[in-house]
Predict the structure.
Amino acid sequence: MGMKMQRKFSFFSIFMAVIIAVTGCGGTQGETEQTETKVASEQDMIQQSMFGRGEDFGALLVSQGITLPVSTTKVFVNQAGYISNREKKVMFFGEQLGNTFRVVSQADKTVVYTGRIEEGRLDEISGCYLSEGDFSEVTDMGTYYIETDIVGQSYPFGITPDGYENMFVGMLKNVSDVQLVEDAQGICDISFGMHAIMYAMQCNGSLFEEAYKQFGEEEKDRQLVSQLLYFAGWLKGHQGTDGSLYGDYEATAAFCGIMAMSRDMFGRYEASVSKEYKEAADKAWAWLSKQECDTDVRKNARFYAAVQLFRVQFNEEYKTIVETFLKEKNEDYSAQRFVFYGVIAYISAGENTDRDLCTHIMKDLVDRNEDTGNAAKNDAFFGTGKRSVYDNLYNMLLLCFINDITPSKEYTEIIENTIQYMGGLNENGVCYIDESGAWKELSETSDRNLEWNGILLFGMSDMLKNLIDIEKDW
């Protein structure tokens, strides 16, 4: 992962090549297992999109109740694409693989590189038997696939010098591609998503400004400020006359906190916006103050609301609630969403905070982050230490927070590994997010919400910032 990266950003046009490939997994000795699966199944949907099978044809088969044998690939690559001058890995599933693999140009079917398949071993986290190969020497821009004699081919993938930048721009354009769920949980998801996005903007604002230059005139309203103002308005539309949201303590606390944070970010530029968000936050806090707060869940939620209000308008009541809570908790500040996002707000407040308390909190977070780093280091195959989309995202949130304060090559590499894991370099060979920064429609991504998108933006911007300065800082 320590290969050179160009320091200048080159936010070129979004990589839009449509990849059409006919690949097969020619197996022997029982390695290529075929099972009858409905054409409309998730695996077949992936093959339709990658191999160009027409949607009308698939729909016709389903309507007639026809099933087809589906052969799943056993050669796993980052389908979202590799960067020309970065490390490139491929993973192989199974025990009987052969000794070599070939990188083949999609355009003319020529072999551009032959690599060695390393000796396989059991991945203890997933229980899969995996082997890996390296093709970092392939740096020319183009579309390729991996080919073997025994387990067939991989899905196609691109190699570009600016794939991360293009994905980042795509994520910006797709940030609002989430379902707005009108219930208490939906309020919390939107609120924490807004928090992650705003914190990413505060930390890496210059990268966002560069990315906006790639937006067309008709896409100006998709810039983050416009989207955040829209989400804030949507949240406000769900506040009841009593100040609560659905009469739910956690939803009201999340709303109260994000209204205060939005006021701090946008209200300074527009007095009417400041007044509007202040009134909404104060009304929500008044409702919270009348409710019982005698459970850990409610105390966590009240802490989040109080710390956001504390950042915007210093008040002894807020300060007492916040610091009493933090001292009583004493450790494990990243385990719950309300607590961790509240801690991020407190540490980044800058004024009127308890320096000794901040030091204590940071030590705890760094220790937790070291645990994450050790788990990733022990993950010989994928370098993430986790095997679910959400767990990887939440880990990335903590990594990015610490990495922004004290940049680390190791943490940046884990973030990069996580992005590649999402792109298909995982134990299932499934691409969760593509080269355009859009989530795939899969069961593992069906629960995605604005928080997922916010953390991804934070992770991508943090990684890009550090990779740009790799020579200078490391």
